[in-house]
Design a protein that fits this description.
24 helices, alpha/beta, 5-stranded mixed sheet
C-alpha cells in the first residue's frame, strides 16, 4: 500500500519535470524530420521509406490536423509517454514481487536526464520505452499464469511498439528468450506461449510490408557510419547522466566524423566521465552480491538484449545511437534498485545516492548552451530581425530545421552534398541570392555537408562579410553585396 500511495506524487514529479519548459529548446534535425513528414497526407506517411515505421508520424499528423502544430504540441505525445512510464515501472516492479524495488526504480526514472530528454523530443523513443514497459508487464502476468486477455494485451502492445520503432524487435527478442526458458522449464505452459506467439506474430505482420524498404533506406543513410566499441561505454555514460554530463555530443561528433577519435573532446571532461562510468559499473555489479532469482535473470535479459541488439546491428549495416537502446533504461534502473536486496546494503545505498546526484547534475545542465539542442529558432529570429529581402543558405544537417522558424518570403537554399561535387553549387547560390539585400549563411554541424568550408569561401569571394552571431550549435554570418 505504501508503494501504491507513491504513484500519484511520483507521477506528478515526472510530469512537472517533463512538461516544464517542454518547448524551451528549439526543434532540431531529428524532430524536423518527424514534423516535415507529419504534414504530408496520411497515405504518404504510411508508405514513406524513411527507415522508421509510420505510427509516430501519423500521431503528429493527427495533432497538426487538429491545429496543434506548435513545438509544444509536437512534443506532447513524448511528454505524456515519458510521464506514464514512471508509474508503470512501479507497477511492474510490484508484480515482480518487489514493490520497494519498483518504487525506487520509478523515482530514478522520474528525474533521469536521458528519459527526460527523450520525453521532450518530437520523436518516437519515449513512446517506445513506455510500450517496452507495458508489454513486459503483460509478459509478467503471463509468466504468473495470466489468462488469455493478457496474451492479447501483450500482442497489442508489442505490435504498437514495433509500429513506433523497428528496434522494438530487440525488446521482443528479450521477452521471447524469457518465454522460451519458461516453456522449457514448465511444459504445462507451452500451450499458453504457443498461443501468445501466434497472436504476436499476426499482430507484428501488419508492419512487415514496409520493413524492407525502411531497412534499405536506413542502411543507405548510415552507409558512412563507423562501428565503434566506444558505443558501449558511451551508452553506460548516458544511462547514468544522460547527454549533459561529460563531453557534449557536439564535441564528440566532429571527432568521430573525422576519424581522429574522441580523446581530444573527452580529455577536459575525463574526471566527470570516469566518475559516471564508475557509478554505472557499481549499480550493475552490486545486485550480483546475492543469489540471483528467476526475476533477476529476467531483468538481465531485458536490460542486455535491447542494448546489444542495436550495437551488433551497427557492425552490420545501421549506425548505433544511444536512443535505440532507450527501452532498456527502465530495466537497468529496476536492476540498480534491486541492489537494495543484496548483502552489501551500505554500498548499494551509496551507489544509488551517487546515481541520484548525477541524475540531478545532468538534469540541471540539460539546458546549458554546451548541452542543449542546436538553437536554430534563435538563429532564425536573429535573421528575421534584419531588413528584407533576405536569402538564407543552410549548411549542415541540423540547420535544415531553420525552415520551421524562417520568415515567409525568405529565399532558402539547402546545400546538399552533390552540389559540392557536380559543379552546381555556384549557380544555385547565385539563383537564391539574386536580388537579396542580405545573404545569411546558417551553419550547424557543417562537417556533415561541407567539411572544407567551400560554401563560406564562395560567399566570401562574392560578397562582403558584415555581422556574425553564434547560438548553441549554430553559427550565422550576414553578407551584403560588395558594392
Amino acid at each position: 500500500m505504501r508503494e501504491t500511495a507513491a504513484l500519484l506524487p511520483l507521477t506528478a514529479v515526472a510530469a512537472a519535470v517533463r512538461f516544464a519548459g517542454l518547448d524551451r529548446q528549439s526543434i532540431w534535425l531529428d524532430e524536423w524530420h518527424s514534423v516535415r513528414l507529419a504534414v504530408k497526407p496520411a497515405a504518404a506517411i504510411v508508405v514513406n521509406p524513411d527507415g522508421e515505421p509510420p505510427l509516430f508520424g501519423l500521431l503528429l499528423h493527427a495533432l497538426i490536423r487538429l491545429g496543434a502544430a506548435s513545438d509544444w504540441w509536437m512534443r506532447f505525445p513524448s511528454a505524456v509517454a515519458g510521464t506514464l512510464a514512471v508509474p508503470l515501472v512501479l507497477l511492474v516492479g510490484a508484480r515482480l514481487g518487489r514493490p520497494r524495488v519498483g518504487l525506487v526504480a520509478a523515482a530514478l526514472l522520474a528525474i533521469h536526464p536521458l528519459a527526460v530528454w527523450y520525453s521532450q523530443e518530437a520523436r518516437a523513443y519515449a513512446v517506445t520505452m513506455l510500450l517496452a514497459i507495458a508489454s513486459t508487464g503483460c509478459l509478467v502476468e503471463l509468466l504468473r499464469g495470466g489468462r488469455t486477455g493478457w496474451a492479447v494485451a501483450y500482442a497489442l502492445t508489442t505490435s504498437l511498439g514495433f509500429g513506433f520503432h523497428y528496434y522494438f524487435a530487440f525488446v521482443v527478442a528479450a521477452q521471447a528468450l524469457i518465454a522460451l526458458a519458461d516453456a522449457a522449464a514448465t511444459p504445462a505452459h507451452r500451450g499458453r506461449w504457443f498461443g501468445t506467439a501466434l497472436l504476436t506474430g499476426v499482430a507484428l505482420a501488419v508492419w512487415l510490408p514496409g520493413l524492407r524498404a525502411d531497412a534499405a533506406a536506413q542502411a543507405a543513410q548510415d552507409s558512412a557510419s563507423r562501428f565503434s566499441w566506444m558505443a558501449l561505454p558511451y551508452t553506460a555514460l548516458a544511462f547514468v547522466g544522460g547527454f549533459s554530463v561529460g563531453p557534449p555530443l557536439r564535441a564528440l561528433h566532429p571527432a568521430s566524423r573525422a576519424g581522429t577519435g574522441a580523446w581530444a573532446a573527452l580529455r577536459p571532461y575525463l574526471p566527470a566521465t570516469m566518475l559516471v562510468l564508475a557509478v554505472a559499473a557499481a549499480i550493475v555489479a552490486i545486485p550480483f552480491a546475492r543469489r540471483l532469482e528467476r526475476e533477476d535473470r529476467w531483468l538481465l535479459v531485458l536490460m542486455v538484449v535491447p542494448v546489444l541488439g542495436p550495437f551488433v546491428a551497427s557492425a552490420v549495416a545501421v549506425g548505433y545511437r544511444v536512443r535505440y537502446a532507450l527501452p532498456a533504461l527502465p530495466f537497468v534502473l529496476v536492476w540498480a534498485a534491486s541492489g537494495l536486496r543484496s548483502r552489501v546494503l551500505p554500498l548499494a545505498l551509496a551507489a544509488l545516492a551517487a546515481l541520484v546526484g548525477i541524475e540531478g547534475w545532468g538534469l540541471a545542465q540539460m539546458n546549458l548552451p554546451a548541452y542543449e539542442r542546436e538553437d536554430v529558432r534563435s538563429a532564425a529570429a536573429w535573421v528575421t530581425a534584419r531588413p528584407a529581402p533576405r536569402a538564407v543558405i543552410l549548411v549542415g544537417e541540423t540547420s535544415l530545421a531553420f525552415e520551421r522558424y524562417a520568415a515567409p518570403g525568405d529565399a532558402i537554399l539547402e546545400v546538399e552534398p552533390h552540389m559540392l561535387t557536380d559543379g552546381t553549387l555556384a549557380a544555385r547560390v547565385a539563383e537564391t541570392t539574386s536580388g537579396a539585400g542580405s545573404v545569411f549563411l546558417v551553419s550547424s554541424r557543417p562537417w556533415t555537408i561541407d567539411p572544407h568550408g567551400e560554401v563560406e569561401a564562395l560567399l566570401g569571394a562574392r560578397l562582403r562579410l558584415g555581422e556574425a552571431a553564434s547560438f548553441p550549435g549554430v553559427a550565422v554570418r550576414r553578407y551584403t553585396p560588395s558594392g
